Amino acid sequence: MAATAPTVSGTTTPSVSPPRRRRPKLGAYGLLVPASILIGVALGYPLVRQFIISFQEFGLKQQFGAPPEWVGLQNYTDLLTDSYVWTVIGRSVAFCFVNAIVTMVIGMSLAVLMQRVGRAARITLQVSLLLAWGTPVLASMTVWQWLFDTQNGVINWVLSQVLGIDSMAQHSWIIEPLSFFFVATVIVVWMSVPFVAFSVYAGLLQVPAETMEAAQLDGASARQRFWGITIPMIRPVLSIVLLLQVIWDLKVFTQIYVLQRAGAPTRDTNLLGTLIYSYSKEFGMAGALATIMLVLTLALTGFYIRQMLKEDEL
């Protein structure tokens, strides 16, 4: 018989359990798949549909079942050879940059103010900004039309009766294109400032107090600390906010459309949004102009997108 190995009393042979099958971990990209599908369906299909229509003659007849006629680049050619379209594009870009710069300056100023004032003043300012931001656009437009009304507007009354500028009595603000865009700028900036102010204020709260105190001990003035430390630290926030402002101000529509309906000359006050809307019976032309607007938006924001991508790589 074969000898068996002696066993040591008091010891037990450990039981080896079979290895468990590990389930594959769902990575971050897997978690993004459902949201990506929803975004692709909700945004991708209309974008592709718009792009296809821009190469077709698509009008009211096609809405009732008539097959669209493929015209190729004809819609783009008609638009890009129209001097009025280029005038509207230049006007829209100028309006966009003026509004974006003014909004950023005022929003940053209010954010710094919220950081430096007391609790009661800060809460009052924040509530005021929230009310301005939360008011529906059409309700806000009604109030602003009353303020700038020719006959009974508060603005004309203050300028003529309080400040003594007699020429502003019963002045029509929306007849002349220059004053029209001044009113539009006031309204658009007023609606956009709260978002910038709250975003920048949130960024200011992330600046380490120790860094600021160390710079102060080294002799840096308040201005030097702001431009040399605070601004570089919150630059990612400023870049994103400015990018969003450029996009929003370039495609502004409601404010311009409502003011035009109040009696402004449409041709002299059109921006890209209202010009696209004017092609409501020519969907092919509207789709082509909307595509041009999309390309223009990407071109204007390309620099900021590249800067944000570089910051992500660092």
From TrEMBL:
Major localisation? membrane
What start-end ranges are recorded for coiled-coil regions in this protein? none
Domain named ABC transmembrane type-1: which ranges?
A: 89-304
InterPro entries attached to this UniProt entry: MetI-like (IPR000515), MetI-like_sf (IPR035906), UgpAE/MalFG_permease (IPR050809)
Compositionally biased tracts (Low complexity): 1-15
TM segment ranges: 26-48, 88-113, 125-147, 180-205, 226-248, 283-305
- Which GO cellular component terms are attached? plasma membrane
Q: Which GO annotations describe the biological process of this protein?
A: transmembrane transport
Q: Which domain of life is it from?
A: Bacteria
* Key words, A-Z: Cell membrane, Membrane, Transmembrane, Transmembrane helix, Transport
Q: How does it sit in the membrane?
A: Multi-pass membrane protein
Subcellular location field:
Cell membrane
* Region described as Disordered: spans on this chain: 1-22
Concerning its family, UniProt says: Belongs to the binding-protein-dependent transport system permease family.
Q: What is this protein called?
A: Sugar ABC transporter permease
Organism, per UniProt?
Cellulomonas rhizosphaerae
Q: What is the lineage of its organism?
A: Bacteria, Bacillati, Actinomycetota, Actinomycetes, Micrococcales
